[in-house]
Every structure is written in structure tokens, then in C-alpha cells.
Specification:
Organism: Hydrogenophaga crassostreae
Radius of gyration: 12 Å
Protein name: DUF1059 domain-containing protein
Structural class: mainly alpha
Strand content: 5-15%
Strand order of the largest sheet: 1-2
């Protein structure tokens, strides 16, 4: 199992997510983002807008995803 924070995954806080795969963490992060969206959390809204901007630029989201996955892969398992 490995752990990354919301901030490490492109978010705006230090909430920790743990899982066996990067995809597990991405799913948990996505659920958290939806909760923060429903709460209209200003800091998370800024982070979400930054992620949306990545989606517009060709290849940017894939590059971002690959870098976060590499960061996950480099973490020690707990």
C-alpha cells in the first residue's frame, strides 16, 4: 500500500489517500474532489480549474498523469 496527498495528486489539501495502485489513489482523489466541489471549497476549485486547463493543452494531461504515476511508483510500500 502507498499513500499520496490530495496536493500531490493536483488538489489543494493534505488529505491522505492510500491504495495498492495509482488508479486506486486517483479514484479516491476524484471522489474527494467531487465532495469539495459540492461544498464549493475555494481552494479545491482553483486546483480543479488548473486541472481543466491541462485538459485543453494536447498531451499535457497525459504528461501530468505519467509524472504522478512515476512519483507513486517511487514511493515505498507500507
Amino acid at each position: 500500500m502507498k499513500t499520496m496527498t490530495c496536493r500531490q495528486l493536483g488538489g489543494a489539501c493534505d488529505k491522505a489517500f492510500s491504495g495498492n495502485t495509482f488508479e486506486d489513489l486517483a479514484d479516491l482523489s476524484k471522489q474527494h474532489a467531487m465532495e469539495m466541489l459540492q461544498r464549493n471549497d475555494a481552494n479545491h476549485m482553483v486546483a480543479m480549474n488548473a486541472m481543466k486547463a491541462l485538459m485543453v493543452e494536447p498531451g499535457a494531461m497525459q504528461d501530468w498523469f505519467a509524472k504522478r504515476k512515476a512519483e507513486f511508483d517511487a514511493l515505498p510500500a507500507t
